[in-house]
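S1.2 Input.
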Amino acid sequence: MADRPLRPARIQLAPGLDVPRVLTGLWQVADMERDGKPLDPDVAGAALGEYADAGFDAFDMADHYGSAELIVGGFLARAGRARAIAFTKWCPAPGPMTREVVEEGVRQRLQRLGVSRVALLQFHWWQYRHPGYLDAMIELDQLRREGRIGHLGVTNFDTDHLRLLIRHGISVATNQVSFSLLDRRPAGRMTALCRESGVKLLAYGVLAGGFLSDRWVGRSEPTEIPDWSKSKYKRFIDTVGGWDALQGAKLVQVAYILIYLLVAFYIARWRSGMLPVIAALAMIMLIFAAVSAPEWFARDKDGFEDPALEAGVLGMITVLIIPVQVLLIAFAMSGFRQNWHVEVERRKDSPRDDYDDYDERRDPSPQPA
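S1.3 Output.
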């Protein structure tokens, strides 16, 4: 069991649709084929097999993702239909959505995938000014009832239009939307509607094409971005404040150091009011160090990009921070026990208490026998 690779957790999107929580998206196929040369289906299919063997057996694609549907269809034909789950999207140009148009769109998806039923067909509509999306979804829902579609989803629908579909009695299992630390739009009304209606959110761009991963921490802003995915999410970064905002943790680190130095300065001047402040800061630092220390050692292996210092060295430094913060908290508490936090105010011109200058060795008054 110790040597068994970690497999992704799974979730039921809809009755009979059990998938890993991390889907394998195939948008990059279109990027890799933008020179007009399709990928080798056998080589690409073998790569899909490696994902499926590791538990990532749900593949998400669209009608305009290059030859992605054909690659998945070939893989399913060779490996068996039960080996993986295929999601795809139908993204027609706005226009009349008659029964014939919708049927043809679905027929093409079935043919390219080589299946008799699409596990999850997601519908995308380019502009809501054209009302044809409602006609399309009504026809798609009918095809679902007829068995050619397992479950029906939508892509990039906003809250109001998704609510309209639900009120029309259309069975919508999922809505695939951009959702990440950079793009929090679905976190409000959309999430509330999905919780109320049972629609599941499929989030794409969660790591912003990799920009929200360790690989880009502390890195300079890229000047040339070769792939479509990073180009898209770089625009997201520019929208939320630019590269400096993404790397903003540096400012937090500098601010924390400055606060520590300032508090140390005041405590050195016997400003006892700083004791609870330094104790609180030490507790926060202790928590961060305890959580992050194991992660530094975990990345001290192949596959991770090395920081300026070796990951093992940074892990050891982080471990040493833990006892330092414990000592800092202990000294602060000791100061409290010594009543450092008790201050007595006295006006400069107020008379001094006789006991202020009392020194038994100099007191000339008679001592008791």
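S1.4 Remarks. The chain has a mean pLDDT of 84.
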